[in-house]
Amino acid sequence: MDGELSGKVIFLTGGAQGIGRECAIAYARAGATVAIADINPDVAQATVADDLRDAGLALQCDVADAASVQAAISQTLARCGRLDAIHNNAAISGPSKPLHETTGEQWDQLFAVNVKSIYHTTLHGLAALKASRGCILSTASMVGALGQENHAAYVATKGALIALTKAMALDYAPFGIRVNALSPAAVWTPLLRQWVQDQPNPVATEDFLNHIHALGFCPEGDVVADVAVFLLSARARFITGVTLPVSGGAELGYRRLGTK
Ligand SMILES: NC(=O)c1ccc[n+]([C@@H]2O[C@H](COP(=O)([O-])OP(=O)(O)OC[C@H]3O[C@@H](n4cnc5c(N)ncnc54)[C@H](O)[C@@H]3O)[C@@H](O)[C@H]2O)c1
Predict the structure, then answer these.
(1) Would residue 31 be called left, alpha or beta, if left means φ above 0 and alpha means ψ between -120 and 50 degrees?
(2) Does the pLDDT of residue 257 top 80, yes or no?
């Protein structure tokens, strides 16, 4: 996919580690300049230096904070002169609880980081995207469509994101802006490893995660990154309002019982 995003500037939230880091690497390989906006600036800086070979910038940003997002997008525009895509990837996943055991503070924090963040990036990035006829991409989750036990507030944020993707696609299509989302089932990242540890039986949960995917294993983030490059590239120029599963068939509902 070398050159597919040549000359593009991509503002990527939560790109310091996990799926975001894999996307940053794939975007840079495809020719883009990547602005990694992350709450953890040291890890973001290390990703830019080590993985992007300085073909990007690391920005300290709390996506839940409107002023912080505004500052990070302003810095990106000042340094790069344009903006072709916003990838809303940053999220938190805890607590792993049913709704009545979730505190009001936890609910508010999950919605601030996972959903209101998209309001912030859109508010402050839309003018630049109108100028470039760019794209918005968000990292959803299969649980936002299917549900998941013991994870009510997180599931609700991902359901909201899927609905928002459709509404935004309609609102911004007249400006030539495409709005899509990616929907992984499970992907090995620090976030997933933490979630596994929060389960009553982490060993059984890890085994379960390998087996929910019809293709037979829980992947690394590269599988998501390849699809992200596609959705931001001209190859996807007639795709908007879609939440694309990148899930090895997990949503088909069949547990994999063995290899043939
Ligand atoms: N890992 C999975 O199995 C999985 C499955 C489905 C969907 N997802 C989604 O993929 C995305 C990435 O998940 P991951 O597993 O790579 O997570 P991760 O925890 O490994 O990485 C998340 C990144 O977001 C950053 N971040 C967290 N809060 C932030 C904030 N307030 N402002 C800015 N940056 C912030 C973190 O510093 C980190 O770099 C999330 O949207 C998640 O919901 C993950």
Answers:
(1) left
(2) no
- Residue 171, phi then psi, degrees to nearest 5: -65, -35
Q: Does 2 have pLDDT greater than 80? A: no
Peptide bond into 95 cis (omega under 30): yes
Residue 239 has pLDDT above 90, yes or no: yes
**38 CA distance to ligand 1 middle (Å):** 10
**CA nearest neighbour of 143 among 135, 152, 134:** 152
The Cβ of residue 19 has, within 10 Å, a number of other Cβ atoms equal to 27
Q: Where are the domains of the chain?
A: 9-252
Q: Helices (H) and strands (E) in the chain — how many of each?
A: 10, 7
Three-state SS at 54: coil
Helix (H, G, I), strand (E, B) or coil at 258: coil
Q: Is the pLDDT of residue 260 over 70?
A: no
In this structure, which amino acid lies at residue 247? Answer: S
Atom of ligand 1 nearest to the CA of 190: 20
- 9-252, what's its fold? Rossmann fold (3.40.50)
Residue 154 known to be catalytic: yes
Model confidence over 106-163: pLDDT tens digits?
999 999 999 999 999 999 999 999 999 999 999 999 999 999 999 999 999 999 999 9
Nearest CA to ligand 1 atom 40: 91
In the chain, how long is the greatest CA-to-CA distance? 55
